[in-house]
Write a structure and sequence with these properties.
The protein is mainly alpha-helical. 50% of the residues lie in helices and 11% in strands. Strands 1-2-3 form a 3-stranded antiparallel β-sheet, with no helix packed on it. The longest helix has 56 residues. It is elongated, with a radius of gyration of 39 Å. The relative contact order is 0.04. This is Chibby 1, beta catenin antagonist. It holds the Pfam family Chibby.
């Protein structure tokens, strides 16, 4: 057993053969799609009775297939949504104001109770 030598020396592996024995990588894309069945078409899905398909990086409603929403209806819904968001923001503001008023009134009430207790204690000491 050598002290400074390396006793483990694996044999070199032989070079690998060709990565693929198939000639499919030589075919052009359209031939490969026909041969291997890679043409899936556009992805589609159905949500709540409305059919959607994925085109140009976005999900688009398919008009005419399952009663898609027309442009006027979508515009009306957007306006209604904007109105409801504004109303919601106004109501949140009102709630915040009411909470501020409540906390101010509560603080004043506690101060008055404290002053009343102090006055009672001073009047008892005088007697």
């Amino acid at each position: 057993m050598p002290l400074f030598g390396n006793t483990f020396s694996p044999k070199k592996t032989p070079p690998r053969k060709s990565a693929s024995l198939s000639n499919l990588h030589n075919l052009d894309r359209s031939t490969r799609e026909v041969e291997l069945g890679l043409d899936y078409g556009t992805p589609t899905m159905n949500l709540a009775g409305q059919s959607l398909k994925f085109e140009n990086g976005q999900w688009m409603a398919e008009m005419g297939i399952s009663g898609g929403v027309d442009r006027r209806e979508a515009q009306r819904l957007r306006r209604r949504n904007q109105q409801l968001e504004e109303e919601n923001n106004l109501l949140r503001l009102k709630v915040d104001i009411l909470l501020d008023m409540l906390s101010e009134t509560t603080a004043e009430s506690h101060l008055m109770e404290k002053e009343l207790e102090e006055l009672k204690s001073t009047s008892r000491r005088r007697k």
